[in-house]
Amino acid sequence: MAKEVDELTIADLSIHPVWEFVAWDETAVKPVAAPPLDLANKLVGLEVSLASGANCWAIVGNVDIHSEPLTNHFMTISFYANARWHLPRYFDADFISGGPASISAKFELTIEQMFPVTIDLRPYVAVRSTVLFRHLNAEPARRLSRAELIDLAVKRLH
Fold first, then answer.
1. 10 CB-near residues (< 8 Å, 6+ apart)
2. How far apart are alpha carbons 62 and 41 in whole angstroms?
C-alpha cells in the first residue's frame, strides 16, 4: 500500500512508524513491516519531545546510522501541529522564512520552548547506533560551508 509522503497521517504513523520510499517515485512511500537494519531511503514517524516538555508527532528522514556528521547536517524533520510543518535545514533556501523561529511560532512557543527537540529513533531500528538518540538544536554546533556540504554528500556516495 504505497502512499504519497504528504498524505501520511498520525494514524498511519501509529500503525507503521517506518516508511520506505518506493523506488520508482520520490514522493511515494510504503510501510516497513519489521524494524530495518538501517534508515537509508526511509522515514520514521514518532513522537518527539520539545524543550518545553511537550510531545508532538514528527517525521524524520535522511538519518545515516553510520555517520554522525551526515545525520547532523542532512537529517530532515517535519512536525505535526494542526498541520504538517517542515523545518528547513540551515542551508535550504527557505530556512530564513521557515526556520526555527517560524516553526516555534506555529506551536505558539518561543525558540527556547521548542528547541532542543529530543528524537529517539532506537525503537524503530534493529541495530544500535549513536545517531539514533539525538537532540536537535535550533542551530547546528557548526554550519558547514557549501563546499564542505558537497564534500560530505559526495563521501556518502562512496
1. 45, 57, 80
2. 7
Give, in order, the Cα–Cα distances in Å from 121 to each of 39, 128, 153: 10, 10, 22
pLDDT at 2 over 70: yes
pLDDT value of position 134: 96
The answer to whether 95 and 89 have CB atoms below 8 angstroms apart is yes
Number of structural domains (the chain) is 1
Q: How far apart are CA 31 and CA 15, in angstroms?
A: 9
Each residue's pLDDT tens digit, 95-127 = 989 999 999 999 999 999 999 999 999 999 999
Domain boundaries, position 34: 3-157
Q: Chain centroid to CA 40: how far?
A: 12
- For residues 122 and 124, what is the distance between their CA atoms, to the nearest angstrom? 5
SS3 77: strand
Residue 154: helix, strand or coil by DSSP?
Answer: helix
- Cβ(48)–Cβ(110) below 8 Å: no
Q: What is the pLDDT of residue 46?
A: 97
